[in-house]
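@channel sequence for tomorrow's demo:
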Amino acid sequence: MKANELTSKDLMIEDWLQDSFGNIGQVYRLDPGRVHLRLLQERPQDEEYIVHDIEPIPLTPEILKKNGLANDYYGSYFKEDEHMLLEISSSEDCISWTINFHEYGILKLEYVHELQHALRICRIDKDIVV
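structure tokens (generated this afternoon):
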């Protein structure tokens, strides 16, 4: 997914994104074609962007590790709940991650906001740190 492929429909409140300067922020409001981010800075700042001016944050081993979802090479996060088993896994030679859970199959994740959506689908209340 490239920045110009994102639409407001692809996003949810609390998703982590970045602007074209690399400033990271969390979505606090969505309007058609516009995204409002609360930027992480010394003094948090709210900014409004045209959706094509923001970019997804790549899902990296460092981000997964920071959130307790991976070790240095690969990782797994399991949650069993009713008919769901969530497993996030990766390998050292792969820059994308897969998520495997019953009833939904396997999804390929490349960006932080996609991981956030997958966790929400599984009803996992986990705040992701970037």
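heads up for whoever presents: The radius of gyration is 15 Å.
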